[in-house]
Specification:
The chain is an alpha/beta fold and 233 residues long. It has helices at residues 19-30, 48-59, 107-122, 133-136, 144-156, 159-163, 179-188, 212-224; strands spanning 10-14, 34-41, 64-69, 126-128, 169-171. The chain has 8 helices and 5 strands. A 5-stranded parallel β-sheet has the order 3-2-1-4-5, with helices on both faces.
């Protein structure tokens, strides 16, 4: 049953339509938050993830789902926003210090800044996002050091942070979890992962099965002993 937003604590949830962010949404709901979901049309080359996010927000009975328009494609620098090729069939276990070309410059920083702004308007202090251990080694804005520093910045740079009795809290409950652990947690919360989309380079709205995101997802389901309900080309 949908909870009345005014009767419970509010949380802003960054919702991409993917496996991780959907799991975080389920966690926030299980903790009793009225969830205000925030998605972005940021210049990504595909729109299926936003369609999925909208459906997921409705399925979970979220208090509101907002899609903001950004144009990070003009900045470029990522295979997700330009014509750069998305890497396929990479060795996921190979040690490398190179940041993948699928990294979108400062994306989490930009998204979190908008989440903080909306939380301030809503009178909320809790923000949820789905960064996790799998992304930790590749994307600099998925590290705990970044989240700690951003939280301090949010408290220093907002009216709510300066005048409020409590500061912002950025929840990243999947940060130290593997894909297997995330999937098992989500199944326990009753998530239908067939609603989600994880692919960087979908073909006719079906996941390619070969990009890093697809392969990490598929491996997570395999390790959990669960069939991936996603649709693959």
């Amino acid at each position: 049953m949908k909870q009345h937003p005014s009767s419970v604590k509010k949380g802003v949830v960054l919702l991409s339509g993917g496996l991780d962010s959907t799991t975080v949404l389920a966690i926030a709901r299980a903790q009793g938050y009225a969830c205000y979901c925030l998605s972005f049309r940021y210049g990504q080359r595909q729109s299926i993830e936003l369609e999925k996010a909208g459906h997921i927000a409705r399925t979970f009975g979220c208090a509101r789902h907002m899609i903001l328009q950004l144009d990070l494609g003009k900045i470029g620098g990522s295979a997700l926003t330009t014509s750069l090729c998305v890497p396929k069939d990479r060795d996921l276990d190979q040690e490398t210090e190179e940041i993948p070309v699928t990294y979108v410059p400062a994306r989490n920083m930009i998204f979190l800044a908008h989440a903080v702004a909306w939380a301030e308007v809503l009178g909320a202090t809790d923000i949820f996002l789905g960064v996790n251990a799998v992304d930790y080694s590749g994307y600099p804005d998925c590290r705990p050091e970044f989240l700690e520093a951003f939280t301090k910045m949010a408290d220093l740079g907002t009216r709510a942070g300066v005048t409020g009795k409590t500061g912002f809290i950025i929840h990243a409950p999947l940060l130290s979890k593997s894909k297997k652990e995330i999937i098992e947690m989500g199944i326990g919360l009753g998530i239908d992962y067939g609603l989600t989309h994880s692919c960087y380079d979908p073909q006719d709205d079906k996941a390619c099965g070969r990009c890093d995101a697809c392969r990490l997802r598929l491996r997570g389901f395999a390790e959990a002993g669960i069939k991936d309900p996603g649709s693959y080309a």
